[in-house]
Write the structure tokens for this entry.
Amino acid sequence: MSLKNVLVHLGPEARTAARLELAVALARQHGARLVGVFAQRAQAHQVGVISTWPSPAYVQARDASQALFEQATAGLAGAQWQDLNRGADAEVCHRLTDLARYADLVVMGQREPDDTQLPEDLVSEVILHSGRPVLVVPYVGRFPTLGKNPLLGWAPSREAARALADALPLIAGCELAHVLSISTRPEEAGTTCPDIERYLASHGITARAKLGFADELGPMDLLLNGVTDVGADLLVMGAQAPRSLPFDSRGSGTQHILRHMTVPVLMSH
């Protein structure tokens, strides 16, 4: 299994270069077409009561993005840079989500805490509404390998099943896939371990599954600790959408990982 279309979000933040480097490496490895999409929050240029778009600041950032992309993709067949040409939060989120639907994999960056140039919910919007797997790259650290020593978070859910299948191109050929099976019912989690190992074995992947008991730590902190324990270079997990019901924490785990991740995370919904 391989990737044929990879989309990478190019923003104004300094970490764009590291994210682009990873996306280019994946495109070269899989012989995929790479599309770089520049998108950021921006206001129209206003003089008096007259507004014009794009603003000089946006044009400067856009041109720098294109130059960076062309330099990084030199010699990569089919590479394409695209300007989203939107500045309002809702438009940026909607258009990037729409473009993501034509990719096999979307590469985005973890939002920095003080970032004011990207919509706050941009990453989660694409994850939850594009129908495509999203690889989120942390805003600190370097990641010379990806998927060589993965940790797969598992629960008997649609989202986890999607993430597991979507991760196959990234973890193919890994030495060992670590699986952490978490459930509110330990007996249920225990029965899934052999099934996951057999499923991955059918794809030529050796896996070691174990139970994770969310007693003192919540399930998301178990995953973050598991990343450290096994020295994982990739975390794979299903993403859940929040609900507007009182006292319903569904979706909070996804946001917790997006805030505290230390390695690239592949999320599917």
